[in-house]
């Protein structure tokens, strides 16, 4: 029997021991990602056969497992069979979500009855991967409009870029996040959970391996962004918020954050679009290098 424990900040070192041997391109296996959505997605974990088993629910309230971490190959079939039994006994919708293609191949090699399972691409959950140097240079015809927005901001506004640290900046970030949340007309409960996560992580920046910048315009905080390096080649942007009424604000913080904090990586992961039309359009407008596929795997 597996007993699952709610994810807390105290679990960070344990998770990093399990995730550090991997070079995921997906954001899903970052401790910070799991921690940000720990309440919204009811993230829980257990250890079985020395493997880290993570259970969560998606934004539609459907529970599933993500890829086990730290397992021995000879134990994987047993682990999956135990998870299948747990799924059936606990009315879990999917066996796995957020899977990378390499893990699908491992499962296929283990089960002769693979046709009894279904495998589905989860397009709304694909991560957007960008070439870091292009985000910094905004070079080329395709990104000409973004560069114009950036230049317009630089030319027309008095601004200051600061690191997210210190009591005043942290307080200003929280106040800005609260303001932007209250200005939203929709009542998306996930935005409430995101707001609480922002308050939590900016108050505990020193406990994460996070980088963050805030942009002040005429002395008022108008944008901020938070991310981290997952490995030497890959950074992920977890949070990006800005005053959309300031022309070029988003283009400025997008480029400036990479320049200041992640100029030594090759790839920047800007996470998924969740099937939201406006968000998909915005992410596609930067012409991703690749969409990192994720899969649903079930019975």
Write a brief caption for the model.
This protein has 299 residues and is α+β, with helices and mostly antiparallel strands. The protein has ten helices and 14 strands. The protein has helices spanning 12-19, 31-36, 76-89, 101-110, 132-137, 144-156, 167-183, 189-203, 249-261, 277-284; strands spanning 5-6, 44-48, 51-57, 63-65, 96-99, 118-121, 127-131, 159-163, 210-217, 220-231, 234-242, 267-269, 290-292, 295-298.
Could you tell me the CATH topology label of the largest domain. Aminopeptidase
How many distinct helices? Answer: 10
SSE string: EHHEEEHEHEEHHEHHEEEHEHEE
Strand order of the largest sheet: 8-9-10-11-12-7-13
Which residues sit in consecutive blocks of at least 5 with pLDDT less than 50? Answer: none
| First-last Cα distance | 21 Å
Tell me, rounded to a whole number, the average pLDDT: 95
Secondary-structure-derived class: alpha+beta
Share of β-strand residues: 15-25%
**Helix content percent band:** 25-40%
- Name the shape in a single word: globular
For the record, the CATH class of the largest domain is Alpha Beta
The name of the CATH superfamily of the largest domain reads Gcn5-related N-acetyltransferase (GNAT)
Rg calculated over all Cα atoms: 20 Å
Give the beta-strand count. Answer: 14
- Any idea what the CATH architecture of the largest domain is? 3-Layer(aba) Sandwich
């Amino acid at each position: 029997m597996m007993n699952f424990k709610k994810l807390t900040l105290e679990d960070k070192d344990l998770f990093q021991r399990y995730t550090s041997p991997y070079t995921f391109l997906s954001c899903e296996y970052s401790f910070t990602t799991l921690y940000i959505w720990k309440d919204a997605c009811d993230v829980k974990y257990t250890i079985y056969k020395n493997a880290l088993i993570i259970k969560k629910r998606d934004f539609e309230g459907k529970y599933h497992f993500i890829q086990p971490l730290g397992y021995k190959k000879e134990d994987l079939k047993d682990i999956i069979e135990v998870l299948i039994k747990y799924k059936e006994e606990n009315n879990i919708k999917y066996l796995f979500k957020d899977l990378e293609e390499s893990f699908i191949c491992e499962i296929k090699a283990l089960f002769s009855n693979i046709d009894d399972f279904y495998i589905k691409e989860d397009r709304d959950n694909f991560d957007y991967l960008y070439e870091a140097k292009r985000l910094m240079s905004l070079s080329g015809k395709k990104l000409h409009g973004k560069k114009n927005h950036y230049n317009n901001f630089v030319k027309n506004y008095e601004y200051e870029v600061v690191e997210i640290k210190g009591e005043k900046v942290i307080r200003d970030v929280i106040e800005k996040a609260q303001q932007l949340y209250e200005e939203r007309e929709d009542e998306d409960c996930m935005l409430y959970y995101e707001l609480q996560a922002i308050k939590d992580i900016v108050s505990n920046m020193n406990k994460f391996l996070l980088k963050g910048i805030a942009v002040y315009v005429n002395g008022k905080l108008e944008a901020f962004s938070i991310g981290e390096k997952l490995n030497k080649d890959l950074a992920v942007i977890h949070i990006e918020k800005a005053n959309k009424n300031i022309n070029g604000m988003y283009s400025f913080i997008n480029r400036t954050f990479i320049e200041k904090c992640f100029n030594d990586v090759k790839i920047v992961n800007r996470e998924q679009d969740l099937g939201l039309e406006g968000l998909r359009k915005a992410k596609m407008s930067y012409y991703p290098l690749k969409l990192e596929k994720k899969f649903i795997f079930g019975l």
